[in-house]
Prior knowledge:
Blueprint: E1 4-7, H1 17-27, E2 32-38, E3 45-46, H2 49-58, E4 63-68, H3 73-82, E5 86-90, H4 97-106, E6 110-115, E7 133-137, H5 152-164, E8 172-176, H6 183-190, E9 194-197, H7 207-222
Parallel strand pairs: 1-9, 2-4, 4-5, 5-6, 6-7, 7-8, 8-9
Antiparallel strand pairs: 2-3
Helix pairs in contact: 1-7, 2-3, 5-6, 6-7
Binding site for a divalent metal cation: 33, 35, 66, 176
Catalytic activity: D-ribulose 5-phosphate = D-xylulose 5-phosphate
InterPro entries: Aldolase_TIM, Ribul_P_3_epim, Ribul_P_3_epim-like, RibuloseP-bd_barrel
Amino acid sequence: MTKKIAPSILAADIMNLEHDVKMAEKAGADLFHIDIMDGHFVPNMSFSPSVIEGMKRVTDKPLDVHMMIDNPDQYIKPVVDAGADTVLIHTESTNHIYRSIELVKSLGAKAGVVVNPGTPLENVKELFPIIDQILVMTVNPGFGGQSFLPGMLRKIQRLDQLRQTSAADDFEIEVDGGINAGTIKQCSDAGADIFVAGSYLFNGESEAEFAEKVDKLRQSAAE
């Protein structure tokens, strides 16, 4: 599958978000990753459907929305109505993950599930036929700027193996957490397709420096 770079706006300058989105778009970002956190499911809070709606006005790139919230079903429609192209839901956040995925799909968006570092892949195998993406967290969810957990490479590799031996083999594997020019190659070699990068990209760089980092990520993923 095509390797894709997804800048995470959690690390962007929220006071200059349109500037950072345009900068990332110009640099060749394939999509944008938006974290919605409620302060309960994870110990942090961020963004709302209004941010998705605002981003939809300034970019044509797909918006990849990561729901780190309890009871996600009540927010799925507002998020999709705001412009989410893909909605990613943690298996632990709902008692009925299959129903949540079906709800996302019924609203016309792509649907995916998220596996935390401690989440067994067996918990999501039954969802393979109905999902478009699986997001493997390579840090503990909730905060940006954390160090990559190398033990997650085995999980990515195992997931890729399961994908290859499954009849439902067309979902993409996404990774989020500690992604830089070194770890992206490791994740790509393990089988990942979409790479969420936050603090590595958004660190006060000029447009030229930002573009250089995106190019470096893309080259490393393709090697």
